[in-house]
Write a structure and sequence with these properties.
Elements lengths: L26 H5 L2 E6 L2 E6 L2 H10 L6 E2 L15 H17 L5 H19 L9 H17 L8 H9 L7 H6 L3 H26 L8 H11 L10 H32 L1 H14 L15 H14 L8 E2 L4 E3 L2 E3 L5 E4 L1 H5 L39 H18 E5 L12 E2 L3 E2 L5 E5 L1
Parallel strand pairs: 2-7
Antiparallel strand pairs: 1-2, 3-4, 4-7, 5-6, 8-11, 9-10
Helix pairs in contact: 4-5, 4-14, 5-10, 8-10, 10-12, 10-14
The chain binds protoporphyrin IX containing FE.
InterPro entries: Cyt_P450, Cyt_P450_E_grp-I, Cyt_P450_sf, Cytochrome_P450_fam2
Membrane topology: Peripheral membrane protein
Subcellular location: Endoplasmic reticulum membrane; Microsome membrane
Length: 442
């Protein structure tokens, strides 16, 4: 297993690393589509390629629905949940967020409104080069703030800035971070501060709770806790409230903004794609009204580009670890229920050469048929199987990206031909390279 790589990452003066994936897919050339690696003392079954991932995550969805536990997070919320607790918290979150309009018109209005705030902020850059990370994170984060905290924040609001400062991709691994010295311990400290922030909001909500008129996810959770009072086996506790809220906050913020940040960089590298996007946006939406979800069905090129950005950026290359809910045979191998993590290497489906003509090339044609209509491809697995926020993410990506391109032309700071669109580092997440761009009003 000498080839096993945990992330890439280029240092100053060094050539960029090859596109390494956390478990280099080349391992499958030697060991096949299914093999075991040992992470410390934990055996993990790694699954590679579209067909095998489909077999496990879709055809045997129930059997592979357990959440792997090598992240060792105690009293988990949804993302690291398992069994009955996970089922109940997940169902509750879906129903509650839908009641606030997630995946529906209510959320669409919020996303459109947030897009307008984002555009106003982008005009303030006055065509000068800037790093888009902060503004994109604010926009994505505000959608989740509205769902879980019942309000959006101005981008300069100190409470919001403090909150944004706590977010880091590595949040998802707080328990690992706790033990790794150096900057990781700071990240773990940030995780605790975010939990504290949530705790304060919970105290505030409790004082003003109106059972007839819950304002946000936290209110709904508190009401559920009241209903479950007296049930010694309840899964709705202070602890699961805090963890679930932190899960939603993280999962819904960093994913969307990283995809947008990656996407804009790819468009800087491919101005011909940007030009076709402008053309379709001008033709279908025009310059004067804000984009809405109804437009999407008439914009196959935009749809294809967003899918291709998500495929190519591949921001969660290893997926999130699963485990089996019962002993199962897969391709003749026995995977026991207990003690085995299953790592679905989503990247091996997203880059599967049997499913994409030129997997290593950014090409929106991967999602277009010969008549220019949008073409689904089942090997597209950016959301894996159980992402709870998929509908919301799709809405945000479409409305934010089309709004930006409706108003601005992108201008690179560096020579377009040399823009490197491989990730800055590639591990549990693919992190886009830091860059600056200018937005020229159209
Ligand atoms: C571009 C955006 C996004 C991407 C690429 C993404 C990707 C993923 C992936 C790969 C998983 C693991 C699924 C599995 O275990 O099979 C996941 C789970 C999850 N995502 Fe997303 N996600 C995105 C946006 C969001 C948003 C906006 C939310 C918030 C509402 C969200 C909430 C969650 C939650 C709560 C889980 C855990 C679900 C569970 O274990 O039951 N995600 N996501």
């Amino acid at each position: 297993l000498g080839e096993l790589k945990f992330g890439g990452g280029s240092k100053a003066g060094m050539p960029p690393p090859p596109r390494t994936l956390s478990f280099s897919p080349q391992l499958s050339e030697t060991y096949g589509e299914i093999f075991t690696v040992h992470l410390g003392s934990r055996p993990c079954v790694v699954l590679c390629g579209y067909r095998l991932l489909k077999e496990a995550l879709i055809d045997h969805a129930e059997e592979f629905s357990g959440r792997g536990d090598f992240l060792d997070t105690p009293a988990p919320g949804i993302v690291y949940g398992n069994g009955e607790r996970w089922r109940q918290l997940r169902r509750f979150a879906i129903v509650t967020l839908k009641s606030f309009g997630m995946g529906k018109r209510g959320a669409e209005e919020r996303v459109r409104e947030e897009a307008q705030h984002l555009i106003q902020q982008l005009y303030q850059t006055h065509g000068q080069p800037f790093d888009p990370t902060f503004l994109l994170s604010c926009a994505g984060s505000n959608i989740i703030c509205w769902l879980v905290f019942g309000e959006r924040f101005e981008y300069g609001d100190e409470r919001f800035l403090a909150l944004m400062g706590l977010i880091n991709l590595l949040f998802i691994f707080p328990n690992i971070m706790r033990f790794v010295p150096g900057p990781h311990q700071r990240i773990y400290a940030n995780y605790l501060r975010l939990a504290e922030f949530v705790g304060e909001r919970v105290r505030r909500n409790r004082q003003t709770l109106d059972p007839q008129n819950p304002r946000d996810f936290i209110d709904c959770f508190l009401l559920k806790m009241q209903q479950e009072k007296g049930n010694p086996d309840t899964h709705f506790t202070e602890d699961t409230l805090s963890k679930t809220t932190v899960n939603l906050f993280f999962a819904g913020t960093e994913t969307v903004s990283s995809t947008l940040k990656y996407g804009l960089r790819i468009l800087l590298r491919h101005p011909e794609v940007e030009a076709r996007l402008h053309e379709e946006i001008d033709r279908v939406i025009g310059r004067h009204r804000s984009p809405c979800m109804e437009d999407r069905s008439r914009m196959p090129y935009v749809d294809a580009v967003i899918h291709e950005i998500q495929r190519f950026a591949d921001i969660v290359p290893m997926g999130v670890p699963h485990t089996t809910t019962r002993d199962i045979q897969l391709r003749g191998y026995a995977i026991p229920k207990v003690g085995m993590n299953v790592i679905p290497l989503l990247c091996t489906s997203q880059f599967d050469p049997s499913r994409f003509a030129n997997p290593q090339t950014f090409d929106p044609g991967h999602f277009l048929d010969e008549n220019g209509r949008f073409k689904r491809n089942d090997a597209f697995m950016a959301f894996s199987r159980v992402c709870l926020g998929e509908g919301l993410a799709v809405m945000e990506l479409f409305i934010f990206l089309t709004s930006i391109l409706q108003h601005f032309q992108l201008k690179a700071e560096e020579d377009q031909a040399t823009i490197d669109i491989t990730p800055e580092s590639s591990g549990l997440g693919n992190i886009p390279r830091p860059y600056r761009l200018s937005l020229i009003p159209r």
